[in-house]
Amino acid sequence: MSDPCPCGSGLPYDDCCGPLLATTRLARTALELMRSRYTAYYYGNAEHLWRTWHPATRPVEVTLDREVTWTGLRILEVVDGEAEDSTGVVGFVASYDGGSLRERSSFERRGGRWLYRGEHS
Description:
This protein is α+β, with helices and mostly antiparallel strands. It has helices at 18-21, 30-43, 46-51, and strands spanning 70-80, 87-96, 99-110, 113-119.
């Protein structure tokens, strides 16, 4: 798919979040994982969300609200989370029809994979 990626990176989907959702490669950074998780919400891909959620905080099942239409992602801050880091924080605003979600997400690299831990306090 050569359409722009929904995550707002400006890259084509196939060069951005597509390979992560298709499991052909892993996220290199916490930000890249954050963007792929937004894209998974955008496309309703609960399997990617579950797979990239840290086992210590992951729900038994990821349930998506099919009535929500995601409309954009704006990154506010990135703290660490590079390829050589073990943790990172990404602050963002995810917009949807009728509102937005603002969060500072915590990420951890475990076994060479970035995983979402949850909202950072």
